[in-house]
Amino acid sequence: MSSPSKIPVHEPDIGEAEIASVVAALRRGEISGSFGQAIPEFEAKFAAFCGCQYGIAVNSGTAALQLAVAAAGIGRGDEVLVSASTNIATALAAYHSNAVPVPVDSEEVTWNLDPDLIEDLITPRTRAIIPVHLFGHPAAMDRICEIARRHNLVVIEDCAESHGATWQGTMTGAFGDMGCFSFYANKIITTGEGGMVVTNDIKLAERLRLLRNLAFGKPRFYHEAAGYNFRMAGLQAAMGLAQLARIDQFLADKRRVAHTYNRLLSGVRGVRLPAELPDARHVYWMYAVTIEPEFELSRDEVARNLADEGIETRTFFCPMNQQPFLRQQEGFREIPCPVADRLWEKGLYLPSANRLDEPTIARVCHAITRHARA
Fold first, then answer.
1. DSSP class of 56
2. For 99, what's the count of Cα atoms within 13 Å in the CB-facing half-sphere?
3. Taking Cα atoms as reference points, which of 129, 208, 134 lies closest to residue 175?
4. Which of 107, 109, 360, 365 has the fewest beta carbons under 10 Å from its own?
């Protein structure tokens, strides 16, 4: 009798349309990021999808964040408030500009940055805030932006996990001065590697485009700014166009997968399911749960049991207040983040590929629930 197949935590949804689009770009010679039709078309269409005027394609979501921080003129001695519970790329955007990331703890319901904590963390050195739309649930951007306006802070949204998510009917990425997206292999749409900054500010768009491409000046090899080589390749943009054409179906699939998990795990004592607030459209980049003390096993024990059955999972992110290299940075601020600390200890995201069918999701849920207390 053969063993059951493995269930990865994610699989990219790539079809013939993506292959044909990339091949066509190759035939047009669009292998770099300096010419061709795919990049400007992808930038325009993705920006429009987000409700923004300008898109600046780059080679990763991490590069998008770093470019946004640089375009905002943030540098040595400045502080940037960041969501405590996030991928390290969010903090690196400030760190690599010689600014100090200051973690803001999570709130209990959606696990996003808690707006109630922002103002007590602002100092004369604070220049910006980077809220993260964690796992695809939008942060409370109306409150965050209102606080930022009163304190003259730049708002850079980390939308790596939230393509298509909305807060009060507005797409993530369209609230702040800039929104930064990732198109890594496990994101809602992918270009393999890649990212984009979207904005409605033409001056920021011009600055982003300048810095992305080594800040070439006039004459060409005269540089008044320290730029980056953050270009996206044309063949990646071609793949992005094909993926973007399918995004409505991808989002529907993400929500179908999440709702199936919700139905099968509802009522299981000690397994806390992801929230979706009334003002939000959650896109469930990953289906994330926490394993509470009422459950029979710890989070790590659940993960090991699932791994033994060929089911891949991931823990939540180690919070920024615990990251060793950030704690060693000059100017580091010791900010308690008890909610983010607990999420790091208890959080687990489950297989979340678009194409998961109900029997596969049921297999995952059964592997969890058979260890639950009656």
1. E
2. 27
3. 129
4. 109
How far is the C-alpha of 67 from the C-alpha of 228, rounded, in Å? Answer: 8
Q: Which domains does the chain have, with CATH numbers?
A: 16-244 (3.40.640.10), 247-369 (3.90.1150.10)
Strands (E), the chain: 54-58, 79-83, 100-104, 126-130, 154-158, 166-167, 170-171, 178-182, 195-199, 271-272, 280-281, 287-291, 314-315, 347-350
- pTM for this one? 0.96
Mean pLDDT (whole number) for 224-249: 97
Q: Are 231 and 212 in contact (CB under 8 A)?
A: yes
Query: What is the average pLDDT across 141-148?
Result: 98
pLDDT higher than threshold 70 for residue 253: yes
Q: What is the pLDDT of residue 3?
A: 59
Torsion of CA 166, 170, 173, 178, to 10 degrees: -150
Pairing, β 280-281 against β 314-315: unpaired
| Terminal-residue alpha carbon distance, the chain | 31
Concatenated DSSP letters of 78-102:
-EEEEESSS-HHHHHHHHTTTPEEE
Angle at 167 between CA 60 and CA 170, to 5 degrees: 80
Coil vs helix vs strand at 34: coil
Cα separations (Å) of 244 from 37, 163, 217, 252?
16, 10, 33, 14
What is the rounded CA–CA span in Å between residue 47 and residue 54?
A: 6
Neighbours of 149 (CB within 10 A): 10
| pLDDT value of residue 155 | 98
Q: Is the pLDDT of residue 75 over 90?
A: yes
User: Has residue 374 got a pLDDT over 80?
Assistant: no
C-alpha to C-alpha distance for 348 and 336, rounded to whole angstroms: 22
327-349 mean pLDDT: 97
- The percentage of the chain sitting over the pLDDT mark of 90, rounded to a whole number, equals 95
Q: Are 159 and 180 in contact (CB under 8 A)?
A: yes
